Backbone:
């Protein structure tokens, strides 16, 4: 009943699932993220699969699940830092993707952006509601250091995108990087980011936008 | 802040420049609701801002992808089972300005995922393992019809199994129970992935449901909602071969759930469970509480 506590400052605590024994036949569900150089193809495949699912094709769903769920789960886990909450969010989001697939509009974004956006939003909603009960902020003010990307990504399965993000984050100013990482991976509002960095609001707003823009250009994300 | 309900492309507002400054935070879900509404409104009116918004969202998606972690197998099982039963929403329903407004999932009806004991029709025990429709399998251009049949059948089995393997989403929050559910689900998915895996289920006479996943040379019996055996008693599995019971492993019951695997099973055998004195028996000393006979 009571949600498991989310460790506020304890860094990343959940056990590594990736290290678990490989169940026979459980073809690891990371094909979409683990094959170097296949990013555009994988992305197109996810878009295609989502389009099929949007057309009511149940057969296309397992493949879509396997393509999207690692990013969905990883996003939720990064923000929530709790495997049980993350599993719930993943389950909700993946079922929601099935239910509302026909609302996805390829012109407004890729399948994976749609999925991770949903996952991030859900995780953030959850963290903020838990936060309001627990005043997680207090822990933050009491000396919780912002996590670096490498700490967040500690339990991620190594993939091409992690390498690219690591590289491109290195091209941001320290203050931009801190603001982007705090906002996305910790699910903080920019106001909270400003508080925790003791920086003025407009400054933080710009840091986030400029940092994200620089990241976009470095990653070669098409507009 | 309070934009008219129907923003039109080309409309301008005095604070547009300030709103546009929020796009980065918008893409990272770092705004409060009022601010988000302002940005959504801007995006609906201003194609330039919409383009920037889209590219920043895609960038945020890469941040998500960069920390990708495979979800637990039990989640996959639960999602596939729910998808097998959940209807899709109409495209017509409004989806919010960016097409990604999270919509709370409608309660998944009476057959909500993982409800223990949810009535699920007994599947026809088809021969196809659900893992057959991996990426590649399902994109094979010619194989659509067989793939569809295979998944539909497999899905019925999955729907049944998830009720057995994954008690409810509440379990995610209880580490021990979640770990057990996960382990059960792992064993089931592993065996289901074997060629020729079949699923058969039957009610347990004393209450609950038993499901067996069988292959040519192994069987995994999982039962839920079953009574704990009496003091000094256990459940014992029997492999029924040519009408005679061959004694197999024994087990207790945890949380109304039991699971036993045997490698003594061979195609053509049936399976039975009885209640026996601790340590098990050479011959059954009571009537079976369930008999599972694969087709």
Residues:
């Amino acid at each position: 009943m009571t949600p498991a506590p989310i460790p506020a400052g304890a860094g990343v605590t959940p056990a590594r699932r990736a290290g678990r024994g490989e169940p026979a036949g459980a073809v690891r569900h990371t094909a979409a993220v683990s094959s170097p150089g296949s990013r555009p193809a994988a992305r197109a495949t996810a878009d295609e699969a989502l389009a099929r699912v949007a057309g009511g094709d149940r057969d296309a769903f397992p493949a879509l699940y396997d393509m999207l769920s690692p990013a969905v789960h990883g996003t939720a886990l990064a923000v929530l830092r709790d495997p049980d909450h993350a599993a719930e969010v993943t389950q909700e989001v993946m079922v929601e993707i099935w239910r509302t697939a026909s609302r996805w509009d390829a012109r407004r974004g890729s399948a994976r952006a749609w999925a991770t956006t949903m996952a991030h939003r859900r995780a953030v909603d959850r963290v903020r509601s838990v936060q309001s009960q627990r005043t997680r902020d207090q822990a933050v003010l009491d000396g919780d250091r912002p996590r670096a990307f490498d700490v967040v990504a500690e339990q991620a399965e190594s993939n091409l995108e992690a390498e690219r993000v690591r590289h491109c984050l290195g091209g941001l100013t320290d203050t931009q990087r801190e603001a982007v990482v705090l906002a996305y991976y910790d699910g903080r509002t920019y106001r909270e980011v400003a508080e925790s960095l003791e920086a003025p609001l407009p400054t933080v707003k710009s840091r986030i936008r400029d940092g994200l823009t620089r990241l976009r250009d470095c990653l070669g994300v098409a507009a | 802040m309070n934009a008219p309900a129907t923003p039109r492309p080309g409309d301008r507002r005095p604070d547009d420049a300030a709103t546009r400054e929020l796009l980065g935070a918008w893409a990272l879900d770092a705004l409060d609701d009022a601010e988000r509404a302002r940005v959504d409104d801007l995006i609906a009116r201003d194609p330039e801002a919409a383009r920037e918004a889209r590219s920043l969202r895609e960038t945020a998606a890469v941040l998500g992808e960069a920390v990708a972690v495979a979800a637990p197998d039990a989640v996959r099982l639960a999602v596939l089972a729910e998808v097998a039963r959940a209807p899709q929403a109409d495209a017509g329903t409004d989806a919010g300005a960016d097409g990604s407004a999270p919509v709370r999932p409608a309660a998944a009806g009476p057959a909500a995922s993982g409800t223990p004991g949810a009535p699920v029709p007994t599947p026809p025990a088809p021969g196809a393992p659900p893992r057959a429709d991996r990426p590649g399998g399902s994109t094979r251009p010619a194989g659509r019809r067989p793939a569809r049949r295979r998944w539909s059948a497999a899905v019925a089995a999955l729907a049944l199994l998830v009720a057995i393997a994954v008690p409810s989403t509440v379990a995610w929050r209880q580490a021990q129970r979640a770990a057990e559910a996960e382990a059960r689900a792992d064993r089931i998915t592993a065996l289901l992935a074997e060629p020729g895996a079949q699923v058969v289920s039957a009610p347990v006479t004393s209450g609950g449901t038993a499901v067996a996943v069988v292959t040519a040379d192994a069987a995994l019996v999982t039962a839920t909602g079953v009574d704990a055996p009496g003091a000094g008693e256990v459940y014992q599995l029997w492999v029924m071969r040519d009408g005679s019971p061959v004694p197999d492993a024994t087990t207790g019951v945890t949380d109304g759930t039991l699971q036993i695997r045997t490698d003594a099973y061979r195609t053509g055998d049936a399976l039975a469970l009885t209640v026996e004195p601790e340590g098990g028996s050479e011959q059954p000393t009571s009537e079976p509480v369930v008999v599972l006979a694969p087709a």
Observations:
- Chain A touches chain B through 109 residues (CB under 8 Å).
